[in-house]
Amino acid sequence: MKKVIGILVILGLIFIGCGKQAPAPGVTDTEILIGNIQDLSGPMKELGAVLPAGSNVYFRYINEAGGVHGRKIKMIVEDHQYNPQKSVVAAKKLIEKDQVFCLYHVIGTSTCEAIRPILAETGTPLIAPATQSGTMSDLSRPAGNLIFHTDTGYDRQTVILVEYILKDNPNAKIGIIYQDDDYGENVLKGAAEAEASQGISIQKEAYQRGATDFAGQVGNMIKGGATHVIIAGVVKEPIIVMKTAAAMGYSPQFFGTSPTMDHRVALAAGPAGEGFIAANFANLWTSDAPAAVKYRELCEQYEVPKAYMGMYHFYGYMTAKVLVEGLKRAGKNPTRKRLVNGLETLNKWESGAFPPLTYNSKDHAGTESVILVQVKDGVQTVITDWID
Q1: What is the domain range of residue 241?
Q2: 100, CA 20 to 30 Å: which among 89, 153, 214, 340?
């Protein structure tokens, strides 16, 4: 009798093992649900609308082609107003209530840093955080194994910009106007590295997130004699800084970290922005890169308003390609762990937008090089090859 019961137990276990796998959060037979957290009503609300719209262009294209392993991608977007505390609330809602499969393209450095504990606690991956902070690829931090960065870090960008300045201008006096939060902290890390390696001192002026008055910072740059100024802001900050400088009769060579690399900066800054040089971690949306060509074709096909098209809209599009590739590699029965494992098989993967992407269990950095883009006659123009 005991032998019969033992056989039945074994058969039962085999039956369970061969049965249908318990579904992962956010995954049904027909859909994969992902969560996105943007600034929809705060100081970066214009970007909060543009970024997910760009992602949805690619998701629509994939869904119309049958989805990923037969599942359509659906994205829920929550508003954090560029506020770390609200980012935590939004992440908990998406993960605990909406049961999303993963988080994707959450915008902001401090906001992404704030949600690390809930990522670690729930095992939820964050793909392509919309920040270029080098901290996103630091595997020693909480949830580091769950975050896949696509962009060159602010620290590395700052080092590259300083080296570029000093190469042609050895006697340059360099200043940085930076956002006083986690974004700026990563920029300062790069500045410290550059100071140590180049034997220089960089003037540093902070501003608070959401600031609209930069007269003090510009005035201090004038007093310090800065000949080259790096603006570590987003879109509106470089516009205001350069217009303020022009009004004060100050004309250093201005540079910007990658969030400033948007065509609206040149449009809004006008003559004050002529000559502005910004770092960028991907090919331009107007380029002949394969992803950029396809992006423009789909924007025309889907009748995307021209006002939306640009660096940030394209950024949403091209990071969506990375997420989709990860979902493909997660297989027909995706789990969060399989998504992580799938992304870690990318080896010099060509997205057609970024430089080749490589991930593995010891490296979630993605790319580590930039091109420099300068405003010439009001038009963004690539002026360098890729710089490592």
Answers
A1: 154-280
A2: 153
3-state secondary structure (DSSP) of residue 111: helix
CATH number of 357's domain = 3.40.50.2300
In the chain, beta strands by DSSP E? 31-38, 72-79, 102-104, 126-127, 147-148, 174-179, 203-207, 228-232, 253-256, 277-280, 358-360, 363-366, 371-376, 379-382
The model's pTM is 0.90
Residue 147, both tokens: 């975050």
300 lies in the same domain as 207: no
Residues 6+ apart with CB under 8 A from 132: 151, 152, 153, 154, 157, 257, 258, 259, 281
Q: How many C-beta atoms lie closer than 10 Å to residue 12's C-beta?
A: 10
β-sheet bridge partners, residue 366: 358
Q: What are phi and psi of 107, to 5 degrees?
A: -90, 140
For 176-184, what is the mean pLDDT? 96
- Per-residue pLDDT of 185-228, as tens digits, reads 999 999 999 999 999 999 999 999 999 999 999 999 999 999 99
Residue 182 is encoded by which pair of tokens? Answer: 């986690």
Phi, psi of 167 (to 5 degrees): -60, -45
**pLDDT, the chain, mean:** 93
The 3-state DSSP class for residue 384 equals coil
pLDDT at 46: 86
| Residue 147 neighbours by CB under 8 Å, 6+ apart | 112, 119, 125, 126, 129, 136, 137, 364
247-291 pLDDT per residue, tens: 999 999 999 999 999 888 989 999 999 999 999 999 999 999 999
Residues 266 and 118 in one domain: no
In a domain, 375, yes or no: no
For residue 207, being part of any structural domain is answered with: yes
